[in-house]
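Notes from the pairing session

We agreed to fold both candidates in a single pass and log them together. This is the raw record for the first candidate, unedited. Please don't reformat it; downstream parsing expects exactly this layout.

Candidate A
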Amino acid sequence: MNGAQVWWELNGELAQQGPGSDPSTLRALDALGPLPTTLQILDMGCGPGRQTRALAAATGAEVVALDRLAPFLGQLEREAERAGLANRIACVRGDMKQPPFRAQSFDLLWSEGAIYIPGFEAGLREWHRLLRPDGLVAVSELSWVASPPEETRAFWEAAYPEVADVEANRARAERAGYEVLESFGLPRGDWHAYYDPIEERAAGLRLAYADDPEALAVLSGHATEVSILEGSQGSYTYVFYLLRKR
């Protein structure tokens, strides 16, 4: 079995592809303060678009949703149709590292759990041009919020060498041309919203692929990540950074 196929069996068609929840999305939206009357939103690395739909419903604005994976965009389009939001969400297939949009096209740039793809500071620098003057940004990024156990630190520094604490990420955002308005960490329940459905699938897949080393390696990688979270002593989470373009 191809490892990518097993990954899709484990992760495909989930409601979300990373930790988060509608309450956390709406908390971040509220923390940005008053929004422009005419609002254009870009959701970078939207995945299946849980937060995209939440933003469209809460603001009544048009949301452009960008992702490089067509299956995620198809899922978002179906869910938006079911929710009566199809006329407010425009799906675009493209690369977050080189977004196919004109300068100063958006008032609000959103990205949940995806800015690690270009890198936190590099992504913010690249996306800066897309915002109108005083444009707003809300991004969530894996961050240290306390001193981690050695095993936890070693795991994440190997998996994501750019991982940093909140103070360092706030400084990165300022260097990239933003004012930091606020930051807050996601609660543990937002991780369960992501991990629990995967765990349910993983149990069946371990039985189905008991004799397939490649498939089991994919499943083992997920199990290790969950184990690291459980032993992390609350030392990391995704943190929302709410920013304004300078």
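Candidate B (folded immediately after A)
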Amino acid sequence: MPPSQPGTLRNQRLPRSERRAQLLESAQAVFAVAGYHSAAMDDIAERAGVSKPVLYQHFPGKLDLYLALLDKHCLTLENLVREALNAPGRTAHSKVFATIEAYFDFVAQEDGAFRMVFESDLTSEPQVRNRIDAVTDACAEAIAEAIIEDTEGGLDDDQALLMAVALAGMSQVSARHWLAQGATVPKDVAARLVGQLAWRGATGFPTGESGEVPREESTGRTG
């Protein structure tokens, strides 16, 4: 559904589910531009083309709107990551590239949803912080499970989780930088570049039961 224009739906009656979706869409547009603290319920109601009482019938307050959107975006991110990891026939190599591409796809969404997950101005609110922490943990744990499977026990749970957090962090920071710089590099090329960096690092880790992280050979230089 295209973004609502102020006043266009004020006199229209919509089923409750459709009205809720429309209000969330309008709220997303306002939050993406203004952030939580500067966004006003008046602005959201105006963009949705409804009166404030109608808005409050669906959402008792601005935080309720924000949390509903955050839940939606967190679920989208987690699903993208899990789909990247669990697609049939994926090799360890393709999982790394697909996971990074999932973060680029999430950041590239036109509604700016990623800002609420990665750049929220409301992280001091426990309900927001808990949701962001939960999706961060869920994605990292999913990646760690794949790492353990693909290294055949070569890394223990803590090692795999550390690598997973590093991969997820590199992916989302790179994707956000790519977008902030105007996406001048095509998205698939940008994701592939980051994937090549990650894969070359990942191939330095062992498979099997040793659990030993390889060390660089000494150059013999003394200073």
